[in-house]
Amino acid sequence: MISEPDSVLLDRRDPDRNMARFYRLDIMPDLFGGVVLVRNWGRVGHRGQERQHWFADLSEALQQQATWIRRKQRRGYSLISYPAVP
C-alpha cells in the first residue's frame, strides 16, 4: 500500500492561443484500504476542476493513471513531473 500521494503533473502551453493548462493525477490511499485516483485540471493559476475515482487496489489505479497520461499526451500535454521509482 502507498503511504504518500503518487503525483503526475502535465502541462500544455500555447502562447499564440493564450493557452496555459495543467492536468494533475494523484494516487492516494483512502480510509477503507482502497486507493483513490484524483484528477485535477484547469487553467494555470486557477484551482480548476476535480474528479475522484475509487479502486480496490493500487495496480488498477496505476493502470488508469497511465491511461490518462497517454490520453493527455496525445492532446498535446507535456509531462512535467513524474514520481521517482524507489
UniProtKB/TrEMBL annotation:
Pfam families: WGR. Residues 1-86 form the WGR domain. This is WGR domain-containing protein. It comes from Paracoccus benzoatiresistens.
